Amino acid sequence: MRSLSLLNGGIDGGHNLILINVPAGSSQHSPALIVLFLVLQLIGLCGSIITVSSAFFNSSISRQPTWYSFLISWIISSISYTLLLFAGQIDLSGDEKQTGVPFGLCVFQSSVVYAAPPL
């Protein structure tokens, strides 16, 4: 077993040490939270696409280019976080024998994830 230690500020201003025992072979991510995160990203992606397309194709709606740029940056961000899902690389079984994510996909996703916030 490995242990994770965290320092918290105590009530009296001191520091309390918290030790959590984590089995060595266990995953640190809950599959339910991963699914929730991906569902929220997909909802945001679909909502942003619907909003941008309805404003773009309706001639009576006038929006500033900044508004379009903002929503397109959210679309890029949502796509970047769901690339592994689209590529079929999400494994929620917790099996340690998985082959891993292809290197090119990993590099592309990490570069887009880190490039999206400045947009």
- Main sheet? 2 strands, antiparallel
Order of helices and strands: EEHHHH
Radius of gyration: 20 Å
Strand % is 5-15%
Number of domains: 1
Low-confidence stretches: 1-8
- How far apart the termini lie comes to 42 Å
Question: Within the largest sheet, what's the order of strands?
Answer: 1-2
Mean pLDDT across residues: 79
The structural class is: alpha+beta
What is the number of E strands? 2
* Secondary structure tally, helices: 4
Q: What is the 3D shape?
A: elongated
**Approximate helicity band:** 40-55%
Structure description:
The chain is α+β, with helices and mostly antiparallel strands. The chain has one domain. The protein has 4 helices and 2 strands. The protein has a two-stranded antiparallel sheet. Strand 1 and strand 2 (15-22) form a beta hairpin. The chain is elongated and about 60 Å long. It starts with a strand and ends with a helix. Keywords: Membrane, Transmembrane, Transmembrane helix. The chain crosses the membrane at residues 33-55, 67-87.
